[in-house]
Amino acid sequence: MKPEESIRYALSLLFCEGSVVELRALGERTHYGYYSDHNKLARDAAILETTPGITGIYVTLNQVNPALPGVLPLHRMKKTDRPLGRCHLCSLHQVTWV
């Protein structure tokens, strides 16, 4: 199974199709993006996996508020910046625990 296929399979176990998921990649800078297209997320994660300087890749398990002003494309930010504030997460009673 190719890395992209393995990632896509894992996403299908963790999230409902079409739900907004946050992807983060750690390195000298933190890369992050929000996706409702899980195939695109899997492709980007597979690319990041082979990117020099990336030391860790993960998705956040907290449900992202779908009322964000659009699903943002993957982009960079400084390590000290926070990509997602608490107001963008659904309340804890709405989180589906795995």
Keywords:
alpha+beta, 4 strands, disordered C terminus, 98 residues, 4-stranded antiparallel sheet, globular
Describe the structure in your own words.
- This protein is an alpha+beta fold and 98 residues long.
- It has one domain (3-94).
- It is 24% helix and 19% strand.
- It has helices at 3-14, 38-49; strands at 21-26, 30-35, 56-59, 75-77.
- It has a 4-stranded antiparallel sheet with strand order 3-1-2-4, covered by helices on one side.
- A hairpin with a 3-residue loop joins strand 1 and strand 2 (30-35).
- The longest helix has 12 residues, at 3-14.
- It is globular and about 30 Å long.
- The two termini are 24 Å apart.
- Mean pLDDT is 76; it is low at 74-81 and 86-98.
What is the end-to-end distance? 24 Å
Main sheet characteristics: 4 strands, antiparallel
Arrangement of strands in the largest sheet = 3-1-2-4
Which of globular, elongated, flat, extended, rod-shaped describes the shape?
globular
Mean pLDDT: 76
Low-confidence residue ranges: 74-81, 86-98
Number of helical elements: 2
The rounded Rg comes to 13 Å
SSE sequence, one letter per element: HEEHEE
Give me the secondary-structure category.
Answer: alpha+beta
Binned strand content: 15-25%
What is the total tally of β strands?
Answer: 4
Whole-number total of structural domains: 1
Measured as a percent range, the helix fraction is: 10-25%
Short structural summary:
The chain is an alpha+beta fold and 98 residues long. It has one domain.
Q: How would the blueprint of this fold be written?
A:
Elements: H1 3-14, E1 21-26, E2 30-35, H2 38-49, E3 56-59, E4 75-77
Antiparallel strand pairs: 1-2, 1-3, 2-4
Helix pairs in contact: 1-2
